[in-house]
Amino acid sequence: MSFPKDFLWGGATSSAQYEGGFNEGGRGKSQLDYINLIPKEELDEHTKIPEVTYERYQKLIRNEDQFNFPNRRGSDFYHRYKEDIALFAEMGFKTFRMSISWSRIYPTGLEELPNEEGLKFYHNVFQELHKYGIEPLVTMTHYEIPIALTNKYNGWESPEVIALYVKYTKTLLDEFKDEVKYWITFNEINMMLMSFWNDGGIFEAKAKKDALSTKHQALHHQFIATALTVKYAHEVAPNCMIGGMINRIECYPFTCKPEDVLDTMIEDQLNLYFFDVMARGKYPKTILKYFKEHNIQIDYVDGYEDILKNNTIDFLAFSYYLSNVVSSEQTAEQGTFVKSLRNPYLKFSEYGWSIDPIGLRISLNKLYDRYQLPIFIVENGLGARDKFEDNTVHDNYRIEYLRSHIRAIEEALDDGVDILGYTPWGCIDIVSAGGAEMSKRYGFIYVDADDFGNGTYNRYKKDSFYWYKKVIASNGEDLD
Ligand code: BG6
Questions:
Q1: DSSP of 79-147
Q2: Catalytic residue list contains 188
Q3: Percentage of residues in the chain with pLDDT exceeding 90?
Q4: Is there a contact between 311 and 231 (Cβ–Cβ < 8 Å)?
C-alpha cells in the first residue's frame, strides 16, 4: 500500500482570500471585496457564511472606507509570491492550487480585451512555480465575479454572464495552456445552495424567481459555462485537463431505520447531482423529480442537453472537511454548511466541524465507483486559532488531523481509487471564507497579520511545515 510515484502533493489557496493587491495592476473589484469583517457582537444577526444582502451592500458602498474588508488585503501574495513559492518548494510541493481573479483579467467582465498587467502577473507566478518544478492547479473562479456583473446582471442569475465567463476562460486557456495543465471551472459549485453572494454574486432581493429556483437557475448557467469551457479546452488545449468541483459532504443515517437511510440517500443525491451533470452530462431523473416537487422553475439554455452531453469534465475535484448526519425525524440543528445532527462518534474542531477521516475514504470510494474518473482532493484541513510563540506555532492538532486524512487517502488508493493528488487548504494562512477573519488559520506557514490588517505580514514556519516536508519527501510513507 503506497502512494503512486507521481502523486501530486501540494497545498491550496484562492485569490480573494490570499492575493490582496485589490486596487493594483488594473484589477477591478469583485463581489468578495464587499465582505466586511463582522464584529463578534453582531454575529448572531448573520448567517455563518457572510451573505451580503442588497440592503447591506447599499450600506457598505455608501461609506466604503469605514469598513474592514480583509479579502482586499488577503495575505499579500501579490507582492510576496516569490518568497511564498520558495517556501512551498522547500516543503517539496509538486503542485500548488491557486485561483485567478476574474476581475484582474477583465476588471468589469465587460471589456473586449483582457488587462495585460493582470495576465503578466499570473505569467510571473506560473514561471516562478515551474522554476521549482511545481505544477499549477488553477481554479478559474473561486467564488468570485466582477462586482460590475452583479450590479448589471444580478450575477449568475442572468444567462448573459455565461458568454462573459466563457470569454474569460477562453482567454485563460489561450494564454496559459502551456503553463497550466490542471484547471477547475468553479470552486465548490454546489455551495450556490448555501450562499447567493459567494457562489453567485446574486442579491436575493433583486431575483426574478423564488430563492430555490434562482439558485438552480444560476447553477444551470454555471453548468453550461463549465461545458463550454471544456469544449474549448478540448479543441485548443488537448494537454489540459478540466475538472469540476464540489464541496463533498459525506452523509450518514442517524439510525438504521429505513426512513433515515432513505433521507440520507436523497441528501446524497442532492450532493452528487452536480457531478452527475458535469461528469455524466445530464440532469439525473431524481433531481428533475426534486425540481418538480419543490416547484423549481428553470429556463433552460437552448440546446443545453447536447452541450452538457458532449462536453463532460476530465476529472473530479472536491473539498472535504467534515461529514453530516441525517435523520427523518429529528429537526436538525443548523450546522456549518448544512443542517446537521451531531455525530456522537466523532470529535469536533474548535469551530464545531466534525473530524472524520473515514468519511474521506468513503467519499473517495463512492465517487470513484459512481464516475470512474480520476479524483483530485483539492481542499482538506483544520482551521484553528493558532498560538504564535517563539516565532513558530506548535500545531500538533493540525498534524494529527492531516495525518489521519492522509492515511484515509492511502487506504482509498489501496481500495483501487484513482487519486491524482492532495492539496490541503490554506497551506499558508489566508483570510477565512466563513468569518472573513485571519484568526481562523489552516496553514503550514504562519502569516503575521490580524483581522484588521495589523502586523508585518512576515512568514514563519509552523511545526506542521517540517512534518509535511517529511511526508512529501517520503511520498507519504513517513507520517510520524
Ligand atoms: C471551502 C472554500 O469551502 O472551505 C474555501 O472553498 C474556504 O474558500 C474553506 O476557505 C474553509 O472555510 P473557512 O470558512 O474555514 O475559511
A1: HHHHHHHHHHHHHT-SEEEEE--HHHHSSSS--SS--HHHHHHHHHHHHHHHHTTPEEEEEEESS--BH
A2: yes
A3: 90
A4: yes
CA atoms within 13 A on the CB side of 282: 7
Q: Is the C-alpha dihedral spanning 49, 30, 456, 447 positive or negative?
A: positive
| Residue bearing the CA closest to ligand 1, atom 2 | 433
- Tell me: the pLDDT tens digits for 305-354? 999 999 999 999 999 999 989 888 865 554 444 556 889 999 999 988 99
Q: Give the global pTM.
A: 0.97
Contact 8, 62 (CB under 8 A): no
For ligand 1, whether the C-beta of 14 sits within 6 Å is: yes
Respond yes or no: is residue 379 known to be catalytic: yes
List C-alpha distances in Å: 183 to 52, 78, 314, 404: 28, 21, 10, 27
Task: Reduce the DSSP state of residue 234 to 3 states and report it.
Answer: helix
| Domains within the chain, CATH numbers bracketed | 8-473 (3.20.20.80)
With 0-12 CB in 10 A as exposed, 13-18 as middle and 19+ as buried, what is 29?
Answer: buried
Query: DSSP character for 384?
Result: B
Query: What is the secondary structure of 433-464 as a DSSP string?
Result: TTT--SSSB--SEEE---TTS-S---EEE-HH
Question: Which H or E run contains 388?
Answer: strand 388-389
Which atom of ligand 1 is the closest one to the Cα of 442? 15
Q: For 243-257, write each residue's pLDDT tens digit.
A: 999 999 999 999 999
